[in-house]
Each structure stands twice: as structure tokens, then as C-alpha cells.
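Everyone, describe these C-alpha cells:
***
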Amino acid sequence: MSDFEVVACRAKFILVVEKEAYYSSLVEDEINKKVDCILIIGHGMPDMATRYFLQHLTKQVNIPVFGLVDCDPFWVSILCTYTCGSENSVFDCDNLVTPGIKWLGVRPSDLDKYVLMSDPFDESKILERLMKKDFLNDKASWMEELEKKSKEMRRCDLVLLNCETVLQKVLRRIGWVW
């Protein structure tokens, strides 16, 4: 990917979305016009091009970056890939990380706000492995959420929720007015 230059930007923040279905719903709802944001899709685990683009965009526009991911154990790996880099490709980490990304949700502490089904999938082994990772040492709030998740037998897939409503709730929770 070659370098690029942002000429003008009136967005207030960048929203990185994990899944294409959720991203498509946000685009269809024209969220970027309602809240002046830049939408980026990671397609699950983000590739190097997406991480490079996000890092360079963030440096140029100097606005907050928020991540919106499913409430399952894999959100930690996804967000840490953005913030710390991939465990598998540390060779170019400096050009591929966005350390300031903030996790919007959906968080385990948000689960009571939505009507969700119990999930028979046992995530305890995955959660146990993730909670031992060094990259969580400086992310106390993420660790707290992982501990809550380890006690929950529910998970939240973003595509099952109303996109606009969820985004409004999580933005209000952090003090952003819709």
C-alpha cells in the first residue's frame, strides 16, 4: 500500500467494525452521516493492509478510534492485533499498530441490556488462555471484562442486535452525544 494524504476530515472519530454484516447495516443506516464518523471494516481478524491504513489514517486525522466487536473471546485477539500487533508477524509492528484504539463493546457488562440467548459453546479454555497473555497486562478494564465473560454463558453476536441502537448506547456510555 502506498502512502496517502487526507486533505480534509470532519469526522469526530473512526469506528472499526469487526463483521461485514454489521458494517453493511451501519452503512445502510447511514451512520457516518448521523454521527460524523469514518467506518472501517476489519473482516474479523484484520489483515496487514487494514492495520496499516488505520494507523496512517489515525496519525493524519488525529481523532479517536473505537472498536466495535462481538462479545465472544475472540474480541480480545482482534483488538490486541490492532493495538499491539499480531503475535505471528512482529517484523513490521511499528507500521501496523494503533495503540490508542478504545473498545466500545459489546462488552460482557453490556449483556444484561440486551435480550440474548444462552450459548452452549464452552469458551472457558479460550478465555483462560487469553487471560494469560502479556498484552493484557496494561489493559485492566479488558481483563475485568474477560473475567465477567468467564462467568457468563451468553455471547453476543453484533448482527443479532439493532446496529443503530447498540451504537447509540455504547457511545452514550462513554459520554459521546448522538
Notes: The radius of gyration is 16 Å. Residues 13-164 form a domain with the Dna Topoisomerase Vi A Subunit; Chain: A, domain 2 fold (CATH 3.40.1360.10).
